[in-house]
Amino acid sequence: MTVQANYIMEHADEALRLDMKTDREAVERQSRWAGLKPGMRVADIGCGSGKTTAMLNELCQPFGQAVGVDGSLERITHAQNNYKAPSLSYCCRNFYEPLDDLGLFDFVWVRFVLEYHREKAFEIVQNLSRILKPGGILCLIDLDYNCLSHAGIPVRLEKAIANITKKLELEANFDPYMGRKLYSFLYDLDYQDIAVDLSAHHLISGQLNEVDSYNWNQKVQVAAKNSNYCFSEYEGGFSEFVEEFQKFFADPRRFTYTPLLCARGVKPLK
């Protein structure tokens, strides 16, 4: 069950995928860079499996609190069952709608969420700004050229991936270029002390590790299938597309990367 629009990665094992790909070192580095400190009350918007929320909760101790908010009841239930602490809580909510009853937060974290809400991304950020205290920090994190940057890829596979991504962009509210828009969201809301950081989220070469293999194969088999793309490049349709992708991605000569953009700003005092 979900209380929000269709999620293109929706499948039975999505909580497992989110758990596997969440890297503690990256979460700690990004949240500390953004200004997370002990004692803060933190909102993790689009918290998914709850693993990141639990990490943020540990990082804001002592005396801090973390609240995970997600539109999927399945993911919230997973989080409640697997990530527990006295200062940690979760709620299933539609973050298109007002969240004022959750109270005010010192730090609002929105990571890998807005890319699934292309048309309403700025409105979501506006809504989340309402639950941030004046002087509080809003941190937005997303990818750019999402799933699109590969070297050594067969021509028809590259074409198919580009066409699938465009179809998801036009028909499923997905934005493969959300990362580059985050700065302007904060700027247009008059946030102060805005800072932007650029790094590599995916940097894949050589032998494929278990996490990247599982994550990318799930992206292909779930998002590509959910796109309802015709796979006209392949006589064998979707199954032949998946077979070619798996062969390409398992090749240690393959090189894949995805830029990650982090933007943080301080809400004006007035």
TrEMBL record:
<keyword id="KW-0489">Methyltransferase</keyword>
<dbReference type="InterPro" id="IPR029063">
    <property type="entry name" value="SAM-dependent_MTases_sf"/>
</dbReference>
<dbReference type="InterPro" id="IPR013216">
    <property type="entry name" value="Methyltransf_11"/>
</dbReference>
<dbReference type="Pfam" id="PF08241">
    <property type="entry name" value="Methyltransf_11"/>
</dbReference>
<protein>
    <submittedName>
        <fullName>Methyltransferase type 11</fullName>
    </submittedName>
</protein>
<keyword id="KW-0808">Transferase</keyword>
<dbReference type="GO" id="GO:0010420">
    <property type="term" value="F:polyprenyldihydroxybenzoate methyltransferase activity"/>
</dbReference>
<dbReference type="GO" id="GO:0032259">
    <property type="term" value="P:methylation"/>
</dbReference>
<feature type="domain" description="Methyltransferase type 11">
    <location>
        <begin position="44"/>
        <end position="139"/>
    </location>
</feature>
